Task: inverse folding
């Protein structure tokens, strides 16, 4: 049979594409499917993408174009965009300014603390900042403490809205002057006499009273519920008991009962008093007046350290802050929707169309956020080609060793060979990141499970990681 030259070229092209098409159409490996069956999770409730880094064809692609809830794997999008758009040297400044005159250690005016949305402004940083203020000669403040939060829009925030658990630390809301993630740390231990409970509060709060629970016998299971806590703006009362068998325990609580102003004021007053200072005015939110002069400032760690904390430990409020930092690049006050627009524009500039992408707050702690496995996979592929790739990958949990992957796949070959962000919500489990196969090849791996039995699907996700490592 006589075949023309153009036809031969077309046939050759089609033959070359056959392996690629076959590769892209491969189903889930048996090990993963069997774990899904055991968990009673249908494949249609999952989305999976496995693709060698640098390859244009997927090894496994299941429902990869469909939008799924990604849970905390959405943080990969927010942190990656921040690393590239803000840059690896970007940091946040918390400034202290003053009005009025300073005479003999007394400030006859207001002290202003102006936030820029630092995701990691901790109480030790405030302590150092106040030491710097004291070093500038200010001891007594004969005016008000003004807290300037105007970098962020005034957005109502309901800590109960997500899951009716406002005391959970992950439910803290964004704040341009976020301090210590707006949390309280209570420590409990039997006292030395063995007849009561010693309670520690960190950070110490001015005018905040803490009453201890009774010491009791019994099992330590459910010890937090046994405390019968009652926390409000004036103090914390533990009306129940604390089992002596618990020894020393720590409980982190979102201080939702204290407004951001009340929380900051209580920490400030206690620290300022401890530093030998005094203030006779009120603490209030306000705007920095044009005649205010800079006294000193605190500079946060740069973006790479921030995204490491977010991705390794899945810190939700830090991710919220980061999305607002992206919004702030186009002017204050920052709003989440403007941050989401910045992310979508950034993806589009990389040639990644993401019509299904929904970003509410950038943390994944959301019932509405959506992304496809394909879009997330394309972003991870683009990241591999980025000059900032090392900074980004080092921010991810190392399988079996640290972060949210510390207790997973420890006895498997993939341990230490994958950088994986995890995601977990009610009815959602997810993983996304990079796996180094035993062959030396590296793969982008994304897998979402959206199903009422998702919590039972973790073994399937771990099986996928191990399969890619051993078979890739």
Result:
């Amino acid at each position: 049979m006589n075949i023309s030259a153009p036809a031969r070229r077309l046939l050759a092209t089609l033959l070359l594409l056959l392996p690629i098409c076959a590769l892209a159409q491969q189903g889930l490996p048996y090990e993963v499917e069997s774990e899904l069956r055991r968990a009673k999770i249908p494949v249609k409730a999952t989305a999976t993408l496995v693709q060698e880094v640098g390859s244009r064809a997927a090894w496994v692609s299941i429902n990869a174009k469909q939008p799924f809830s990604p849970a905390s794997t959405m943080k990969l999008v927010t942190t990656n965009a921040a690393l590239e758009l803000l840059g690896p040297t970007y940091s946040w400044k918390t400034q202290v300014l003053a009005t009025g005159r300073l005479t003999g250690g007394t400030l006859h005016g207001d002290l202003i603390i102006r936030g820029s949305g630092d995701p990691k402004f901790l109480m030790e940083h405030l302590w150092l900042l106040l030491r710097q203020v004291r070093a500038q000669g200010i001891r007594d403040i004969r005016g008000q403490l003004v807290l300037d939060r105007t970098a962020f829009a005034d957005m109502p925030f309901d800590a109960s809205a997500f899951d009716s658990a406002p005391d959970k630390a992950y439910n803290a809301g964004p704040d341009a002057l976020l301090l210590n993630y707006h949390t309280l740390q209570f420590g409990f231990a039997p006292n030395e006499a063995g007849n009561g409970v010693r309670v520690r509060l960190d950070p110490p709060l001015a005018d905040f009273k803490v009453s201890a629970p009774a010491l009791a016998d019994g099992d330590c299971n459910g010890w937090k519920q046994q405390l019968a806590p009652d926390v409000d703006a004036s103090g914390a009362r533990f009306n129940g008991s604390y089992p002596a068998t618990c020894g020393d325990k720590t409980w982190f609580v979102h201080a939702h009962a204290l407004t951001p102003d009340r929380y900051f004021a209580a920490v400030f007053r206690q620290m300022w008093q401890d530093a030998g200072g005094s203030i006779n005015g009120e603490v209030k939110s306000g705007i920095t007046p044009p005649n205010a002069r800079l006294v000193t400032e605190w500079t946060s760690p740069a973006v790479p350290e921030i995204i490491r904390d977010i991705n390794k430990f899945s810190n939700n409020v830090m991710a919220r802050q980061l999305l607002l930092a992206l919004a702030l690049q186009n002017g204050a006050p920052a709003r989440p929707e403007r941050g989401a627009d910045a992310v979508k524009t950034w993806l589009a500039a990389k040639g990644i169309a993401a019509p299904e992408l929904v970003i509410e707050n950038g943390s994944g702690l959301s019932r509405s956020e959506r992304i496809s496995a394909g879009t997330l996979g394309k972003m991870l592929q683009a990241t591999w080609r980025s000059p900032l790739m090392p900074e980004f990958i080092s921010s991810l949990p190392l399988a079996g060793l640290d972060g949210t992957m510390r207790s997973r796949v420890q006895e498997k070959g993939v341990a230490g060979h994958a950088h994986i962000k995890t995601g977990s919500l009610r009815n959602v489990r997810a993983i996304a990141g990079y796996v180094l196969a035993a062959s030396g090849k590296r793969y982008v791996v994304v897998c979402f499970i959206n199903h009422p039995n998702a919590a039972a699907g973790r073994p399937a996700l771990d099986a996928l990681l191990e399969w890619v490592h051993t078979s890739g």
Summary: The chain has a mean pLDDT of 95. The chain is about 30% helix and 25% strand.
